[in-house]
Design brief:
InterPro entries: 2-HAD (IPR006328), HAD-like_sf (IPR036412), HAD-SF_hydro_IA (IPR006439), HAD_sf (IPR023214), S-2-haloacid_dehalogenase (IPR051540)
Strand order of the largest sheet: 2-1-3-4-5
Order of helices and strands: EHHHHHHEHHHEHEEH
Pfam families: Hydrolase
Strand content: 5-15%
Keywords: Hydrolase
Organism: Caldovatus aquaticus
CATH topology of the largest domain: Rossmann fold
CATH superfamily of the largest domain: HAD superfamily/HAD-like
CATH class of the largest domain: Alpha Beta
Mean pLDDT: 97
Protein name: Haloacid dehalogenase type II
Number of domains: 2
Length: about 240
């Protein structure tokens, strides 16, 4: 990692536990609307399953770049309809509150202490498909000590588009090789490496629950492979 001056982080799954956070807020919502029989974690999975297809509409050019809060809201309404609930019959304030559950996700236990150590040596910032307001609210609530908050609308691109990685490095005033992506997803790291960024893999084997089968181990020889953020900090001399 010689020459690296900034660490940028995938957020959903790598920094925060989206599945448990969404399930926590979905459970009372579903109960209030007569669907206490639904598994809130399965509901979270169904909502998340629409994430990549929605962004692909923007990546492909079939739709102009649209911030993630808007995509999440459209996906929420689609998931509700798929589960027999009519969004038109639910108060706007309640739908908005549930949609903003993505702003209130909890970090994994090692994240804040690990970021605090890494911040002493590196510039640290998110490189996420989340929008600025989402990432800002998340950071304020969870105590994430970012040096900068860069959302996808800053780059006007969604990972794994090259622009997402290259424009982030440019915004930080750095060459791609001076920036390392930290992520729990091999595909994200592969796209970053193709753009000249350095790479650090940190597994999150519970991101998708106990039955997770993806991203349990590094798929390539990434520049750094660590157990968690505190191990990453130790490996980088922080």
């Amino acid at each position: 990692m010689e020459g690296v001056r900034a660490l940028v982080f995938d957020v959903f799954g790598t920094v925060v536990d989206w599945r448990e956070g969404i399930a926590r807020e979905a459970a009372p919502f579903l109960a209030r609307h007569g669907r206490a029989d639904l598994d809130p974690r399965a509901f979270a999975d169904a909502w998340r399953a629409r994430y990549q297809p929605a962004m692909e509409e923007c990546r492909s050019g079939r739709r102009p770049f649209t911030r993630l809060d808007v995509l999440h809201r459209e996906n929420l309404e689609a998931v509700l309809r798929a589960h027999g609930l009519d969004p038109a019959g639910i108060a706007e304030a309640e739908l908005d509150a549930l949609n903003r559950a993505w702003h209130r996700l909890d970090p994994w236990p090692d994240v804040v202490p690990g970021l605090t150590r890494l911040k002493a040596r590196y510039v640290i910032a998110p490189l996420s498909n989340g929008n600025v307001a989402l990432l800002l609210n998340m950071a304020k609530r969870a105590g994430l000590p970012w040096d900068a908050i860069l959302g996808a609308e800053v780059a006007q691109a969604y990972k794994p588009q090259p622009e997402a990685y290259l424009r982030t490095a440019d915004i930080l005033g750095l060459a791609p090789g001076q920036v390392a992506l930290v992520a729990a997803h091999n595909g994200d790291l592969k796209a970053a490496r193709a753009c000249g960024l350095r790479t650090a893999f940190v597994p999150r084997p519970r991101e998708h629950g106990p039955g997770q089968t993806s991203d349990l181990a590094p798929a390539e020889a990434w520049d750094v492979i660590a157990r968690d953020f505190e191990d990453l900090a130790a490996r980088l001399g922080c």
